[in-house]
Structure formats: C-alpha cells, structure tokens
Amino acid sequence: MKDIYVSHDLMSPEKNVQRIMWTGTIWFVAAVGASAITLGLLLSSGWRPALLTKGLALLWWIGAGLVAVSIGLIGWSGCPILEVDVPTADRNKTRTMQLGTMLFIVGGTAAMLAVLLGPAG
Q: 104 near 71, Cβ under 8 Å?
C-alpha cells in the first residue's frame, strides 16, 4: 500500500508564516498586557516577592523568569522579519510560538501558585 501525503494550502509554509506573524503580534500584546496587569495589581496591593518563604520565592522567580522568556519567544515569532528562507522560518516560528505559549502557561501557573501559597495580606 502506498503512503498518501495530503497537504492543505492552509498549512503551507507561506501561509503559516504569515499567520504566525499576524497572530504572534496579538499574542505578544496579550501576554505583555496580562503580565503587566497581574504584576501591577499585585505590586499596588503591597505584595512583594520578599514576603515569600525561600522555597516559594524561588518558585515565583522561576515562574517569572519563564514568563519573561516566553514573552521574548512569542515576540520573536510575531516579528515580521524572515531571517532565512520561508520553510526554515516556518519551522522556527512554529516551534518558538509553541514553546513560548507553553512557557507562558507553565511560568504563569508557577508564579501564581507561589503567590497563592504565600502569606495572605
């Protein structure tokens, strides 16, 4: 039996790169906005990472670091500049968008868990 490879135009490298550059910008704005609002509300309430125990502070800083890296990855994915040919850019932007999204979720969850397990204000 012969393997049949079905390719849809919607997932062609050219269309995918265009989509990632367009939606990546939106995801970047959403990630920066969500982080700024969350951190702004925490800090304005008087909360500081120094209030956490050492273990929770470490968890919070790891989570915050992952979120910072994720925002960089998402921002790079949405950047409308192709550093290489389209098939390579498609692969790179797809991977960095997926990794950035995963790190944003994991880092945000870790940071918020540390806040929730910390002392109540």
A: yes
Q: What is the distance between the terminal CA atoms of the chain, rounded to a whole angstrom?
A: 67
Q: pTM of the prediction?
A: 0.87
Length of the chain, please? 121
Residues 6+ apart with CB under 8 A from 65: 107
Residue (of 23, 114, 20, 21) closest to 67 by Cα position: 114
In whole angstroms, how large is the CA radius of gyration of the chain?
A: 19
pLDDT tens sequence across 5-41: 556 777 788 899 999 999 999 999 999 999 999 999 9
Encoded tokens for 4: 């049949």
Cα gap 109→67, rounded to integer Å: 10
State the Cα–Cα distance between residues 28 and 68, nearest whole angstrom.
Answer: 11
CA 78, chain centre distance (Å): 11
